[in-house]
Specification:
four-stranded mixed beta sheet; Nucleoside Triphosphate Pyrophosphohydrolase; 3 helices; globular; alpha+beta; four-stranded antiparallel beta sheet; about 160 residues
């Protein structure tokens, strides 16, 4: 089994959430939250700010920790064909400067402010639904139920 620790930004303003369109090297795309891998020795708090800057071109500050999600992706659905565990740390983040742009030499083709009502019609990572659930319900445990994958919702 492979393992990844990641930090994700939930940026919400005026009934919209900031989403990033991830384009896989092997083709296909889906919408996700800005964020990604926590590097060796890096604090997840710092990682989410770095990832927002890399993927969107914007500076950000963390407003609060929202929660943690752990998911196991079966080998048949995982990119490398090996069972994979992803542990995601979700932060409420506010943009403080910069202009949205594609990730240079990366897999994020664009970042856009998306009305909440439009999210359910998008092909998206389950991370989007987890992040929004954490932001909207703010559970004391920092944990929400797993999001079923299928249809428009992908790993």
């Amino acid at each position: 089994m492979s393992f990844r620790l990641a930090a994700y930004a939930v940026c919400i303003a005026d009934g919209r959430v900031l989403l990033a369109r991830h384009v896989a090297r092997e083709g296909g795309s889906n919408w996700t939250l800005p964020g990604g891998r926590v590097e060796h020795g890096e604090d997840p708090f710092d990682a989410v700010i770095r990832e927002v800057a890399e993927e969107t071109g914007c500076a950000a500050v963390v407003e609060r920790l929202l929660g943690v999600d752990s998911r196991v992706i079966p080998a048949a659905s995982a990119r490398a064909g090996v069972e994979h565990q992803n542990v995601g740390i979700f932060y409420r983040v506010r943009l403080t400067g910069g202009e949205l742009r594609p990730e240079p030499d990366g897999e994020i083709a664009e970042s856009v402010w998306t009305p909440f009502a439009d999210v359910t019609g998008l092909r998206r990572s389950s991370l989007v639904d987890i992040g929004l659930a954490l932001a909207q319900t703010r559970p004391a445990t920092g944990h929400v139920a797993a999001v079923p994958v299928g249809g428009l919702i992908q790993h």
